[in-house]
Amino acid sequence: MAIQHFFNKSIVIKRLESAGGFKKVMVSTGTVDAHIQRIDDVDVLQVYGVAAATHKAWVDISTNINEGDMVISDDYTYDVVGVSVRGEGIAINEHKEIILNINNEYRGTP
Fold first, then answer.
1. What are phi and psi of 91, to 5 degrees?
2. Contact 51/76 with Cβ under 8 angstroms?
3. Distance between CA 16 and CA 28 in Å, rounded?
4. CB 69 within 8 A of CB 80
5. So what's the pLDDT on residue 41?
6. Residue 78's closest CA among 94, 50, 56, 63?
7. Where do the domains of the chain lie, and which CATH numbers do they carry?
């Protein structure tokens, strides 16, 4: 079964970009399907050398997402603290694994 079968949320990916001069704004790079899951019952965890990770997300391998981006789902706003490609070249299970941290500044304001 393809991993895409488990994608049960639509998420918005936002990226910090320059708006001219010293001004920077968050712009949406797209809306994609994903699966988000809490890593553990511990609020702060170190995963893949990234401290303070609280959730993982899985998205299609072609998704344009980078460390430093912001992910907005229907319940929380997250900071992307890690991105890794999994299963590249292995037919139906190619995907990106995203390490997320809840963004307390934007919590509850999708």
1. 40, -110
2. no
3. 9
4. yes
5. 59
6. 56
7. 3-102 (2.40.10.270)
- DSSP letter (8 states) at residue 63: -
What six digits make up the tokens of 92? 């139906």
Sorted by sequence, the CB contacts under 8 Å of residue 58 that are 6+ apart come out as 3, 6, 7, 34, 35, 95, 96, 97, 98
Total residues belonging to the chain: 110
In tens, the pLDDT along 28-38 reads 888 999 999 88
Do residues 5 and 60 touch, judged by C-beta distance below 8 A?
no
Cβ proximity of 64 and 38 under 8 Å: no
Q: Cβ(77)–Cβ(102) under 8 Å?
A: yes
